[in-house]
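I am still getting used to backbone structure tokens and would like to learn alongside you. Please make up or recall a protein chain and show it to me in full. Would you write everything just below, so we can both look at the same thing?
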Amino acid sequence: MSRRRGWMFFALGIVLALGTGVMVFLFLQNQTVSIEQRSRDEAFARYAPPPTMAVPVAARPLDPGVTISAADYIMKDFPLDLVPLSAITDTKQLENNVLVRPVGQGETFQANQFLGKQALSISQQIKKGSVLFAFPIVDLMTKSNIIREGDHIDLYITLPLKGQTADTSTDQTAQPTSVPEQDLGSATALTMQNIEVFKVLYDTAGQSDTQQASASAPSALLCIVTPQDAAVLKYAKDSGGVIDFTLRSPVDTEPFDVPSIDKFEFSRRFLKQQQ
């Protein structure tokens, strides 16, 4: 009986020892977890991520000539101290603007990458497929200094007409002779329409700052035209004809149907025949 009681106390002691060991292990484990959590919290508080700003970046590589829409950019968080000073942060400044420089995927946008923005060279402000043509001031309209940048003008030109009379000779054996050109008068035509004025140039050479600030006579117009229209302007300028510009209304964007007129048409339409 005493031996059985001894074994019972021995077994109970083992159970208590095991229970105590488990409790100590759990206690120490909890303490370790608490210390590690506290360390992580302190480290997070000490090394918390810096404040960020959402900045639009290119969603894919974008080439010059692209008109930016909402599909061309995504928003990306940047630490405040890593946001470029020149980066555009407002998406309203992006949409419907035309790129003049390529933008890589994930790159921020800058004002000097867009058509017509400040700090761009003149060449970056020219529309794709167009060129700038400098046309000297030659007519009263442009000399009057009322044309401004962004206006649209039409070009009229009057040129002398030359011709030859038909050879009515029936002698086929006769040697051909040169027939002098006859003066057929002149003709006026609406040659080019809706020319955009990019800039009005003024001759300020040798003038003081005060004189330059005052109204000066314009010396030339910088016009945005296609290369084909530039050839027409070049010919008109060098032809020796009389050139006049007319100023368009901003609401008139369609071509005018204006037939050319010469002295015969002018007489037929406006001069009465002598009886």
Q: What stands out?
A: Residues 41 and 128 are 57 Å apart (CA to CA). The two ends are 164 Å apart (CA to CA). The longest helix spans residues 2-46.
